[in-house]
Design brief:
Blueprint: E1 7-16, E2 26-34, E3 38-42, H1 49-56, E4 64-69, E5 72-73, E6 83-85, H2 97-101, H3 103-108, H4 113-126, H5 142-154, E7 160-164, H6 172-189, E8 192-197, H7 200-206, E9 209-212, E10 222-225, H8 240-258
Parallel strand pairs: 3-8, 3-9, 6-7, 7-8
Antiparallel strand pairs: 1-2, 1-4, 4-5, 9-10
Helix pairs in contact: 4-5
């Protein structure tokens, strides 16, 4: 991760242990990501990938070490320094799509209902859902629901976005369409994105470099640069160097399972 650029997120010797466990699942982890980058984190199920996100967004408190966003430690009541999008869209079924998207603004306060409505409608238009503000969540397809959830995450106003397997529940064609859509959103908005996935090909397609969990407990993340420039399309995945990268990451994860 390029130290010559402004650091968006940094872990300094961070450790965490779940109360029910006898070992630290995160053990002295240090890494950093630069502002405006796109990194996917890959690793086997249960290895601790999502724990990294929960520590970053403050849902869990680290046992040791420091976590810094834009150079300042998290905690101490600090808010709105990152946006978090989990695997499920978590749209509230009793609220309209527009009301769901406006939820971060409602929680933050300081804006009128009309202002929140206007900003939610603009956010929905930005993700290709113009005219959907008055619909209920059940009226949207899976891909549309994930776009709405992304619009809600964007309205947190945060430059750091944590996306935890947001496309894993979608069918194959919808998933690859959403991957292409997300890259377009990232290139337009210049956010810093950390994206957890089990899908190695998804990680290779999206990332500037993949952050791989090679061992558990997590003591380090192996950074693997992706040899493809942006903007990119799926044809890049056919290149020999991209195929080799994908197979190398798969072998790395297989060794972790066997180990």
């Amino acid at each position: 991760m390029d130290t010559g650029k402004m650091t968006a997120l940094e872990f300094e010797s961070v450790s965490y242990r779940y109360p029910s466990e006898e070992f630290d699942i995160i053990d002295g982890l240090s890494f950093r990501v630069e502002r405006g980058s796109f990194h996917c984190i890959v690793g086997t199920s249960g290895c601790g990938k999502s724990t990294i996100f929960r520590l970053t967004n403050g849902l869990l408190a680290s046992k040791a070490g420091r976590i810094l966003v834009e150079g300042a430690p998290i905690g101490g009541g600090r808010k709105q320094y990152c946006g978090y999008m989990p695997q499920k869209d978590l749209l509230l079924p009793w609220r309209t799509v527009g009301e769901n998207v406006a939820l971060p603004l409602e929680i933050r306060g300081g804006s009128s209902k009309a202002e929140r409505r206007d900003r939610a409608e603009a956010a929905l238009e930005d993700v290709g859902l113009a005219g959907c503000a008055g619909k209920m969540p059940h009226e949207l397809s899976g891909g549309m629901r994930q776009r709405a959830a992304f619009a809600r995450t964007m309205l947190t106003g945060s430059d750091l976005l944590l996306l935890d397997e947001p496309f894993s529940a979608l069918d194959f064609l919808t998933r690859i369409t959403m991957q292409e859509w997300l890259l377009d959103q990232w290139q337009r908005h210049k956010k810093t994105i950390l994206f957890i996935t089990h899908d190695v090909e998804e990680a290779v397609f999206l990332s500037s470099s993949v952050l791989a969990v090679a061992d558990t407990p997590i003591r380090s993340l192996l950074e693997v640069p992706v040899p493809a420039d942006y903007p990119r399309d799926r044809s890049c995945l056919k290149r020999p160097e991209m195929t080799d990268l994908r197979e190398g990451l798969i072998d790395l994860l297989r060794k972790q399972v066997k180990g």
